[in-house]
Sequence to fold (469 residues):
Amino acid sequence: MATAGGVWNLETIMTEHVVSLIWDAWRTRRKGMGAIAQRQRARLADMVAHARAGSPYYGELYRHLPDRIESVEQLPVTDKKMLMERFDEWCTDRAVALEAAEALVDDPSRIGEWFLEKYTLVTTSGTTGRRGIFVIDDRTMAVVTAMMFRWIGDWLSLGDFLKIIARRGRSAMIMATGGHFASAVAAARLKKRLGRRVEVLSAHTPMTELVERLNRFQPAMIAPYASMAALLADEQEAGRLLIDPVLLVLSAEGLPQAEYGRIARVFDTKVGNSYAASECMFFSCMCREGWLHVNSDWVAFEPVDADYRPVAPGEQSHTILISNLANRVQPILRYDLGDSVFQRPDPCPCGNPLPAIRVQGRSADVVTFRTSGGDVRLPPLALTQPIEAVRGVTLFQLAHSEQERLELRLQITPTANADTVWREAEAGLRNVLAEHGLDHIVVERGGEPPEQGHGGKFREVIPLSDART
Fold:
């Protein structure tokens, strides 16, 4: 799950507030879609009223709307660019300021630090052309936990829970360390709190070392990026990785449907994924049938066409609009997320009444380099993190244009020195390649800006097969 709740621990999250949310989530779903829709309407009305009262931006945007809002279609559409331009007026806590938020997220040494001593900051990578900074409050984190427990309750048996407890809940997280992803923040805090029961590993680590450390740690649960899970399955299948996890919780990316089955078969375990975003960290969770069920008691979602008109279930949408009904410090209402989705028109065979979707906008683009010593496969986040860390880069795209060549396309802020930014980005990328024995790969400066894909997003990494088409 691509959220700060990617690895959970009973000792630290079972507060009275979270328990009540878990109970409400379970009870609401048991009552069916009527109860879920009722919860959504009530929470939407409450969130809109709160946003109008506390956010100067929303107060202005909604000034001509009716006093009580019960349908998201009554609201105007927002997006990242629009909200980031009005960041200080957007937040309902008037102490929140963009300058202070940027100072924290631009300093890798401060990952895991609280913002204003009470909020969590997460960022988006800028796939729509601009980085987003999102302020997460305690209520949102509590809802993340409640939705995770609802999902885990569907997946794990009593025997599974007993196995996890027997291994003292040992959990491994594999991520692109150094970036301000939600999972990186969670990992830093969990590692500090739980010590040896949590192993935080970098996606940049050479595979031989990663395999050695996982074999030594023997996690009960493992939370890798989806593309990294596919690579770990290769190692397990080859007999080099020897772990027996109870659950793999994938995050950040999607995979071809058959790949989930392969990973589960290789590890002889349960594999789950979610579709989530910094804007809504509890959006959905995958069922055993491979469908993503939207937590629509806490998020209103609208599959729409290019003109924001509703798209019927059974048809692919151009984009999706979401309304986060938990985050009260930075309300996200009727927000264009930019991904294309397909909503199942019939009930899901798993029995979950929540709406079921599949997402076109996210796929794991593993890059494969052929060398004399065998193929070297790198997950996209291992390649992109050093580029994201360079100040002055507003958007980038890495295309595997030829077998031994990468083309790096950059969009750079007008106030930055383009040559300096390029040199820093190239150096960071070359360091990653060198760590994996790929010093011979040519890194070429792209002459064209990043290419926009379907749904308005930019693919950060384009593998060789796609780059040639």
Summary: Residues 1-362 form a domain with the Rossmann fold fold (CATH 3.40.50.12780). The CA atoms of residues 169 and 220 lie 6 Å apart.
